[in-house]
Amino acid sequence: MRLIPAGLRFAGVLSIVAIVAGCTETLDSSVGCPALCTNQAGVIETITIDPVVLDTTVSALTGQGTETSMLLATRGDTVDSRAVVRFDSIPARYTKSTVDTATTEITTVDSARIRFRIDTVGAKLPGAVTIEAYDVDTDAPDSLTSAVAALFVPSRLITSKTFATADLKDTVTIELPSEAILGRLGQRLRIGLRAQSAVGSVQFRVFSAESGLTEQLSFRVNPDTTIKPVVLLPLSKTPSDQPAISASLSDYTVLVKGPSPPPPGVLDVGGLPARRIYMRFNVPAFITDTAEIVRASLLMTQRPDRSVDPKDTVRIIAHVSLATKVVTDLTRAAQITAQTSLDTLRVAPSDSGVKLLEVAQIVGLWRAQQVDQTPRAIVLVSGTEGQAPLRALFFSIEAAPELRPRLRISFSTRKSRGLP
User: Fold this and answer.
1) Considering only 124-138, 213-227, 281-295, 318-332, which range has the smallest mean pLDDT?
2) What predicted TM-score, i.e. pTM, was given to this entire model?
3) How do residues 88-129 score in pLDDT, each as one tens digit?
4) Helices (runs of H) and strands (runs of E) counted in the chain
5) Pair 277, 405: CB distance under 8 Å
6) C-alpha R_g of the chain
7) 243 backbone φψ class: left, alpha, beta (φ>0; ψ -120 to 50)
8) Which domains are delineated in the chain?
């Protein structure tokens, strides 16, 4: 990250494309000529400037376990992503009916299973897929995911089940051995999920508790079918002194391996762990304060990334930053945003060259912000943030001048008086 001294780098104001007196202005815009040429006397100018004074890549997620779906992926040397589901209160006793308050000790367990919902959008399913369940209970700090990842070993394997591709849809159920529950009565059971395929790379998503499609652990404690089975939802009791974090950790992703960080001078959006691009601007006051914005395009030069699914599509959305100068942590500032632009930039990770993202709505909103209190900033967000390894790379202001991000603005300095 580099902070360029304030003062706009106009780059000589690269182009003043058009100053017109009638309907001779031509723009690649959905706005028709009559609206632009009110009373046949409108003046539209287009300038391309270098207004970015700060840009950087920051973490996208507000905390571990806050994602709405967890990625199960085994992609060779590029991506290894697993999931943990916590059941921190396995009962040791049960009631035989809702009207009987007496409890009975659990001595037998039958029909134990874990059930979860999956999302196959963007999935990679080359053939039969084996889902493995591990005992990943540990007293290591909750934030130390490397300690959890180290528990995915044969001695900790609870069970595994192989599914045909056609069976990996909607709800998936894995039967667990009774011993896995009996050995945890009155304690906790934390299950780690891993997906593999003998015929190639595999990838799909499991919905988390945050999505509302919560996982379930169930088992029978009595052969009498009139006694309902025990049904448990994900629950984490640690860290005990931070209930909000504890709730998020009821299930979470364990990223064992993700794409390598981009080289210096390059920004990335998306990927795993998920990232955002934060960009701060210094735009001439006459444009943001008085001009009528016809069109504004953020021009960014993409750098090819061929590490993961280079031909797939990454969807990038521009948010306006609402963080004031009181927020000095840029990672936090990149979370305080609002989506205002209706435009979406779609690129393949392997693409290159200049890409345009329309941001006229954001530039227009800057007029309502007091620049001495709220920095004018844009945050670029992936449409599949935290849910897929896809990412896009762009050159930053630290790159060569011809590769740096720019802003192209078409504006009119005359106030519209309506159609003739």
Assistant:
1) 281-295
2) 0.79
3) 999 999 998 777 778 999 999 999 999 999 998 889 999 999
4) 7, 24
5) no
6) 27
7) alpha
8) 33-61+260-412 (2.60.120), 80-257 (no CATH)
